[in-house]
Amino acid sequence: MNNKILIIGAIIITVGLLVFGRWYSTGQTQEAVSIGTQGQANVRGGTVSIENPAPDFSLQKLGGGTITLAEYRGKKPVVLDFWASWCPNCRRDMPKLSRFYEKYKDQVEVIGINLQENKRTIENYINSAGISFPVALDPSGRVSRAFGIRYTNIHVLIDKEGNIVRTIPGDIRESDIISLIQ
What are the residue boundaries of the structural domains of the chain, listed by start? Predict the structure, then answer.
C-alpha cells in the first residue's frame, strides 16, 4: 500500500514538473524576443519572425568612411552579421557569407559588425579570410546593444523597408539570403 502511494506521488510530481517546465520554457521564449518602445530588437536565441523598424546606426567602416543603416532603406534588404575574430563559428561562417555577398550584392547588402575588437585584429582576420563585404566597427558595443545582441555569430535580416524580419543565431544559409529578395 505504501509503495503504491509513493509511486502515485512520484508520478504526480513528475507530471507536475513536466507541465511546469513546458509552461516556463514557453514563457522564456516569449520574453527572449521583445521589441522595446524605441524599436529595439531584444533577441537571445532562436529564429524569430518579427517586423519592426530596425534601430538606425552610423558606424566607422574598416578601411575608412562610415556606414549608415538608413542608407539602404527603400533600396535593398540588409543582413547584419554580428561577429568577432576569436569566435570559431564566425570564422567558419563568414567566408560562406562573403560568397553569398558576392553572388547577391546587387540585391542584398551584407554588413559585418565587429563586437568590440581592436582595428588591427579585425583587419588581420578580414584580410586573411578574404572577406569582401563591408565591416563596421562597434568599439563601444552601442549598436550591438541596440539590437539586443548578447553573443557572436548572430545574423539580423532587415527587409527593404528597414524592418527586422528575422534573426538567425548561428550559420546563415543561402535560402535565408534568398528569402529577403523574394
Answer: 1-35, 36-181
Burial 9-48 (b: 16+ CB within 10 A, else e): eeeeeeeeeeeeeeeeeeeeeeeebebeeeebbbbbeeeb
Q: What pLDDT sits at residue 31?
A: 25
Helix/strand/coil for 68: strand
The CATH number assigned to the domain with range 36-181 reads: 3.40.30.10
Is the pTM of the predicted complex or chain greater than 0.85? no
Residues 110-121: tens digit of each pLDDT: 999 999 999 999
Q: What is the mean pLDDT of residues 123-136?
A: 97
Query: Would you state the cell numbers that stand for residue 151, as one nine-digit string?
Result: 553573443
